[in-house]
Amino acid sequence: MNDLAPLLTPEGRALLDEVRDTDPAQELAVATRLRREHPAELVSAALGQARLRQRAVVKFGAEDAGRMFFTPNGVEQSTRASVAAYRARRMAEAGITSVADLCCGIGGDAIALARAGIRVLAVDRDPRTAAAARANADALGLSGLVEVREADVTDVDTAGFDAVFVDPARRGGRGRIFDPEGYSPPLSWAVSAARRAPRGAALKVAPGIPHEAVPEDAEAEWISDGGDVKEAVLWFGTEPGAVRATLLPGPRTLLSRGLPDPQVCPPGRYLYEPDGAVIRAHLVAEVADEVGGGLLDATIAYVTADALHPTPYATAYEITDHLPFNVKKLKALLRERRVGTLTVKKRGSAVEPEELRRKVKPQGPHAATVFLTRVAGAPAMLIGHPA
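^ thats the sequence. predicted structure below, dont judge the formating
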C-alpha cells in the first residue's frame, strides 16, 4: 500500500490493535484468518505496520511505538527518542519557542520538540513519510503544536520561526554518504539555512564528519546513548568553535579544553576505554588528563594509568597481564586461568574477535577481557577485567 489512509480508518485502526502482538512465525496463519473478513491489502498493510512498530520499540519505547505509524526507512533513519528529547531540551532551555524541522521524516524530532513545548513546522518531500509524520503528531496528541507540510525543504520560507533543525538524508542508492556535500540537501545549504535563523539552529550530521568540515561559527557535539554513538550535531547560536561529547542517559557532557595529545606511557595497572562520542569528538586528551594517564600508542584511543579514577567518559579495566601478541600464549594463559567467558576488544589490530575465540577455545567458569592493540607501535595483548 502506498499510503497510510486505510490504516487510519476505524477498520484499519481496529485491525492494527488486533495484530499488534502477532508473532512473525504466525503471520501467515493470522493473515489467512483475517482475509476472510477484511480486504487482503488492508490485512497485509496492518501486519506490515505491526512489524515496523515492533522494530521501533528500541527507539521510541513500547508505548509510543505501539501508537505511531512508520515506514521502513523511517524506522531505520529516525532519531532515537532519548537523543531527540535531549536536543529538544537544549533548544527549549535556550528560549526557542518555534522550529522549522526540515527533512522531518516520520516526525520523531518534531514529536520531541512539541513535547518540549515548541511549535513545529515539520517538512518532508516524500508523501508517505509526511503522512506518517502527520499521523504520528495526531496519534500522540501533538497536532496542535505540529504542522506537517509536504514540500521540498529548499522551497520553504522559515522566516517566521526562531530556529531551524535540519536532518539531511545521508543515504543514497549505494548506501551511506560520507561526503557532507553529498547529503540531501547538501551540508552547505543546511549551514546557510542555519545562519539565517534568528535564534539558532541544529544540523544533524553523521558522527564520522571530518572536523575540518565543521564551520568555524558552529559548535560541534557528538552524542552517544548507552555507549553507542548516535549522531553529531552542529549548533549555531550557541558557542562558536566549542567541541563537546555528550553521553546519555544523563546527560553528561565533556567539553574540549584544547589540550595537546597525551604522552605515550608504558602500560599501567588500569586501561581506560573512552566512550565513542569522546573519541569522535577528539577529546581523549581530556579523559587522559582527568585520570592522570597517557596513551598506550600515539595512534590508538586507549588510555593507561597506574591509579583508578572513575569517570563517566571512559570504562576502566584492571590489567593483569601485558604480553606481545601470541595466540598460543594467550590460549595457555586462558586455560591456566580457566577462562570460559572471553570478551575481545580491539583497536589497531587486524585480528577478528570471533576468529580469536575459535582459536583459543575458552573453557571454564571465569571471565576475562583481552585487548588486542599496539603498545608503542608493537602488537600486544592486555588481559584484565572491568575495574
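Residues 40-65 form the longest helix (26 residues).
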